[in-house]
Specification:
Elements lengths: L6 E2 L3 H6 L3 E5 L2 E6 L3 H10 L2 E4 L6 E4 L3 H8 L12 E7 L5 E11 L2 E5 L5 H10 L5 E4 L4 E6 L3 H8 L11 E6 L2 E6 L8 E6 L4 H12 L5 E3 L1 H10 L34 H10 L4 E7 L11 E4 L2 E12 L4 E8 L10 E6 L2 E8 L10
Parallel strand pairs: 1-3, 4-14
Antiparallel strand pairs: 2-3, 4-10, 5-8, 5-9, 6-7, 7-8, 10-13, 11-12, 12-13, 15-18, 15-20, 16-17, 16-19, 17-18, 19-20
Helix pairs in contact: 2-7, 5-6
Amino acid sequence: MIEEVLRHGPLEDVHRELGARLGPFGGWLMPIEYEGALAEHRAVRERVGLFDLSHLGKVDVLGSGALEMLQGRLSNDVARIAVGRAQYNLVLNERGGVEEDLIVYRLAEERWFVVPNASNKDMVVEAFRAAARGAEIVDHDTWCFLGVQGPRSLEVVGALFAEAADLPFMGCVEVSFDGRPVVLARSGYTGELGFELFADGDLARALWDELLEDGAPFQIEPCGLGARDVLRQEMGYPLHGQDLGPDRTPLEAGLAWAVALDKGAFVGAEALRRQAAEGIPSRLRGLSTENRRHIPRAHQRVLLGNTVVGAVTSGTFSPLLGRGIAMAYLAPSDAFEPGSAVEIDIRGRRAPARVVGLPFVERSPR
């Protein structure tokens, strides 16, 4: 068995000092939790949490050919992104399957800042470079990426960057810290008001310490990727590699809003048109169990009577709802409309569940 060689981020020593439990994530050694996922979840929902997300990709796409390249490789209409705004996007294969999901930030007329998942970053960079034709692709692999998420996040980030107060949801701007550039965005993966910061790795410790200091009056807490996973599931946000993958299209995943079939040619467009015309074979649905003892996990079977009708892609316990929640691909029939009853095979026991709409909880990051 070949042991995985893990990457190490610029804040690993900090996490060890804070007593974090570290573990592999997307090829990196990252903090999974500090005080515990439930306590960190509560901090983000009620106050403010600080995340190290430096494992995620940080890629600049520059030059006069950048827009044309991105339009041909991404599903959404990148031309609609105004300078200072961001857009959710998908990288598709020729079958229309989702190879990656990512955010594109437009920082200048010819500067697009792209943030893919850690495990797919190299694939995205390679695909962009292969289609570049006049675009420059710059991989900021050693940059840090910090997330400040929660109802008090504006007070924390605003104390450091006055520009935060004027940023709309999915807005972005380049600011300065210690005379050095920092990309500041009002975005996140938690459903709460939040900000994300990208900077050279050698600024990571100073930024982290400053944010913790400014957040102390608001009881800021360092948060790990365990809490982040619970937060995103409560919002019904899909995770690539679990809820999204190369064998599922955005139409199946409920992401048609991130596809612009009217913008012109892009990889996967024809396959999506065919699927839309022929019928979508399955749809990503939300499932909610009936009590807190039944906690679904990925790959568990979903049943209607004695028939297996799907499998859980993501599942967890929702602290806000006090019960188990899950996502699963089910056939698009009347039997699986919201309110429909199914069962989930949880370690050999059938747990009653109901189909529910997404998100599981209502939050407003705006």
